[in-house]
């Protein structure tokens, strides 16, 4: 395997929506102790030419992350920035499930997953949006591995672990997706309306695999959009051995589900 970082040419899209109007899209960002990043990522998303609303889901960050969000909500981004506060660190998967249910109830057409630490470039949001809104896909994945290995500032050991974890998932599940653990995604609302969210079982990074697998089993069209992933500069990574173990062993259970479980189809 050759490992390299490639430069991806990004396309620009022109949007003429009124920036004071509610967007048809919402970016969901789970947070835990992200005070160094949260204001900058919010301003970066709201600074895009295309309007996106945002939902922050904070798991009781003791560093005051939620207080920063509340200040921005009150002072500058009323009706565009939203916050769900939860008590305690309840897991990535449950945070996104709470966000998905909220976004579906609010009738957003396009619902995004994104990290707070700038490992996902906000400038790529319109490209994921275009894959769903213009090209007709149901799920768009910001993929590190669709064109080689597009990762910056990760240690070699973590690159190899992530790359071969995705290979392992593909072999076990049969998913034809290069970046099976990617957490930068856009869903059409109907995907999240169809998936039985209360039956999603994983809480860590296996959650990302389960959502892709379930979307595929339900019959949705998925596209990988090449992105460059940049390791965080501020704050602390939430990756742990337990999270990785869940992903490794959880995919076997997903494969068994694929054989025996009935998956709903889009109406």
Automatic annotation (TrEMBL):
Keywords: Glycosyltransferase, Transferase. Signal peptide: none annotated. InterPro entries: DPM1-like, Glyco_trans_2-like, Nucleotide-diphossugar_trans. GO terms for molecular function: dolichyl-phosphate beta-D-mannosyltransferase activity. Residues 27-194 form the Glycosyltransferase 2-like domain. One of its GO terms (cellular component) is membrane. It comes from the Bacteria. One of its GO terms (biological process) is glycolipid biosynthetic process. The keyword Glycoprotein does not apply. Pfam families: Glycos_transf_2 (PF00535). Belongs to the glycosyltransferase 2 family. This is Glycosyltransferase, group 2 family protein.
């Amino acid at each position: 395997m050759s490992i390299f970082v490639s430069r991806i040419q990004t396309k620009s899209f022109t949007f003429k929506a009124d920036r004071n109007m509610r967007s048809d899209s919402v970016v969901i960002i789970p947070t835990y102790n992200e005070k160094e990043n949260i204001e900058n990522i919010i301003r970066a998303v709201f600074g895009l030419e295309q309007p996106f609303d945002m939902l922050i889901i904070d798991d009781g960050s003791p560093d005051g992350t939620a207080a920063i969000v509340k200040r921005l909500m009150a002072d500058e981004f009323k009706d565009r920035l939203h916050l769900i506060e939860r008590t305690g660190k309840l897991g990535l998967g449950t945070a996104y499930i709470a966000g998905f249910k909220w976004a579906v109830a609010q009738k957003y057409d396009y619902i995004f997953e994104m990290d707070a630490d700038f490992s996902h470039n906000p400038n790529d949001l319109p490209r994921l949006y275009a894959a769903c809104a213009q090209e007709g896909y149901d799920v768009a994945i910001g993929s590190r591995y669709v064109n080689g290995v597009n990762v910056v500032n990760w240690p070699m050991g973590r690159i190899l672990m992530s790359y071969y974890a995705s290979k392992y998932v593909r072999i076990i599940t049969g998913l034809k997706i290069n970046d099976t653990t990617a957490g930068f995604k856009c869903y059409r609302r109907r995907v999240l309306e169809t998936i039985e969210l209360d039956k999603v079982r994983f809480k860590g990074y296996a959650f990302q695999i389960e959502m892709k697998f379930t979307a595929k089993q339900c019959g949705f069209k998925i596209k990988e959009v090449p992105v460059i992933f940049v390791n965080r500069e501020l704050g602390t990574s939430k990756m742990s051995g337990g999270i990785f173990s869940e992903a490794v062993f959880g995919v076997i259970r997903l494969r068994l589900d694929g054989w025996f479980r009935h998956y709903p189809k889009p109406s």
